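Why run this: before we spend reagent on co-expression, it is cheaper to look at a predicted model of the complex and decide which construct boundaries make sense. The entries below are exactly what would go into the expression plan.
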Amino acid sequence: MARPFSIRHQTGFTAIAVICFAALYAPIAILVIYAFNAGTSIADWEGFSLRWFVAAWNNSQVIEVSIRSLQIAAAAAVMATIVATMAALATTRTAPYPGLTLKYAFINQPLMVPEIVTAVALLIFFSRIKVATGYSGLGYLIAAHTAFCIPFAYLPIRARLESMDLTLERAAADLYATPWQTFRRITLPLLWPGILAGLMLTFVISLDDVVITNFVKSGGQDTLPTYMLGQLRRAITPEMNAISTVFLLISVGIVTLFFFISRKRN
Amino acid sequence: MASAAELAKTRARRDVRNRWLLSAPALLIILLAATGPLLIVLVYSFLAPGAYGDVKWQFSTDAWVSVLLERDIFDDTLSIADAHLSIFWRSVKLALGTTLLTLLFGFPTAYFIATRPERMREVWLFLITIPFWTNLLIRTFAVLEIIRNEGVVNKVLLATGVVEQPVQMLFTDFAIMVGMVYVYLPLMVLPLYASMEKLDFRLIEAGYDLYATRFKVLRRIIFPLVKPGVIAGSILVFIPSLGAYVTPSILGGGKNLMLGNLIELQFGQGRNWPLGAALSITLMAVVMVALLAYVRNAGDSEVRHG
Amino acid sequence: MNWKITATAMGLALLASTGIAGAEGVLNIYNWGNYTSPDMIKKFEAANNVKVTITDYDSNDTALAKIRQGGHGFDVVVPSQNYIPIWIEEGLLLETRPDQMENFKNVAEEWKNPDFDPGRHYTVPWAMGTVGVVVNTDVYKGDINTWGIVFDTPDELKGKVNVVPEMTDVIDAAVLYNGGTKCTGDKEILKKVRDTLVAAKPNWVAMEYGTIEKMGSGDFAASSDWNGSALRQRLKNPAIRYGYPKEGFVNWSDNVAVLKDAKNVENAKLFQNFMMDPESAGMNSGFHRYANGIAGSDKFMPDDMKGAPEVEVPAEYKSLGVASQTCPPEVQELYTRIWTELQK
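The model came back. Tokens follow.
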């Protein structure tokens, strides 16, 4: 063999890895390609066209559920990130105190329980509250989304806090800065990349949720994913591909942005 | 007069109190919109079903009995509830199969990434995570389009003459498993990569110096070293696979139910909320056992390497 | 400072999301999926200055369970006739007296006083049809006018048959197939029904609602189905035919009702009246392809519906139709248990 012996090489591993990457992207690529199909089929290619994007744009229901999805995601991401930042400040850089482990477990709990179980629990619980209070607005969905988003904001923020240098804050305290001033002028700017990461992740996570939303939603509260779930089980047209493509672009855009921000920092 | 020690103590106490206040909103939201309602599910599992869904407020263990046993419709004899057990077994089987397949594909992929030049690793890793951050529904939909009778796979098979009739892949257990492998692969690659990144290649070099074959190096040196990553990845894949709902409901065709679908069915057409609640608790219990195994494993490995 | 701008933007987004709640002139409809003409809804929205939302359900039981638990936020629901007595009895519907509405005069004579809603105090006709089978005749050339397609699947169709999982439809079909009568409590027959279903299931490929698209794409070659859905399939692929089972088939209707806890009662009543207008009913039929029970609406239907064998039951099969009705609770209970057993 002409190739020099490499201790890192394992026979066939590269091939499998290539297959994996191809397999991960091929279905998505095909889905995107057929969004531009001129025909009504999602199987036969009949030429390039933007008609399904136009159709989706003109479908008032699609626009409506998309706006609702973005609103819920924005609200849930902001709230989850704020409370997760507070919780992260309260659970890092401290000696163990009673209840600390419990807090960790509690904050990360939504990651551990199967989504369907949480969904069922919320269906039962919220329907009682809806009847008792007579309020059946978007608040329930936002609350549910905030809850399962909290760990996704908490983890990057905590990681950032733990890797942060304490000397600047100490220096500020030595210079008689109030705790609030120290937080506002020192901690927060340093923490900002972690908070931004939390915001982006929670936004994407909320935007993607199907199961919990499907069980909690009231009349006229379909989000884009629950609307798509209904459509997927009935009639699939390239319009669904077009919607998916736009949706993919949003998620991938946010995650890519996140990647480059975190890469620059390192 | 407060001594210095007492002062420090009060300050520490105040610090703890502030920390509780600071974390209160997060804890409260999770309590109200995630953890608390689980207790209600537990309560519901001990009630009687209402005529058209919901519950009657009377104590009953029927739901728990019918998780495992069923009464024959016609002669009233009790027997093992093979309806539930077969769905339970299918869920476990598919979740295990998914775990195994993701490991089979994920291990070489993680190794590939870990052996790239340092600057490129991040990029490869990013490429693995992108699909994970895109909508689960869309990814499942993409799989559906590929494996359906008129999908790309069948078209290629027909065109190359491998088969004469399209192969029925959609709406089978196979379809569910393909979907889950596709969807959960990144969850396997990430922890595997994390443990491979720290791999000490001098050990491998030593192996080759002692005339080990590539396979022997893999089996005797690499695999034991990255075992914590293997276990972590397996559990991360197994848990969501077991409770999967979206993937089986789109790719399984409503005929091949998994636990998640069985639970949903009880809250809709099945009209048996207590049974649905009992099944939910059962699912959660299985997941908790898997998680405990995970935590113990993580603890063990830290001790060993620490 | 960069983060200030971001924070402000996020704050604004938060505000925006809370502001949309109390819009005026809303109507929330809860209906079967792929069943409502978008053009007809646009017409209603324009005429009454109301924003309509439509949420899908996939079975009578799902709808009933969701509404019964309360706090659902819906105004209008479209249950099948065999469920309507349950809805009324459970106190879920508002007595809107459609019989006193302006457009009631348009309701066809035979739908003015149905058994399930005597005197039409609650409901307005939406669509009516039959439950039968669709078969792709390119795949199977034999007799399609039998439930045997589903319950004793011919070899050509094995592994290609779908069953639409509406519990009552499937069990009624199996009862008729085994020589029973609708709502029978006869345990001998029901035992046969269970055995038929359990034995037939391995030949089915799926139990899905999405027949229109999947019959068209070749994922299914046959299915139990409703007639309007069958017509939509034939218009896409002429080889797909609708069979009227010789063992008997069920005539059903779905009807528009207003919920007792509706928040937009006036709009909901407007909608009921609107659905009895021949033009709106005709537009809706042009979409879902079922008859609608409104006299004079055929003028507004597409030509391909006139004389279509799916819409107008051919004379030789007419006598085989049985009216859909509510079964006694103890029979219903048996049905549910058979259904659960089928799900394994």
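The two ends of chain A are 40 Å apart (CA to CA). Chain A is about 75% helix and 0% strand. Bring this page to Monday's planning discussion.
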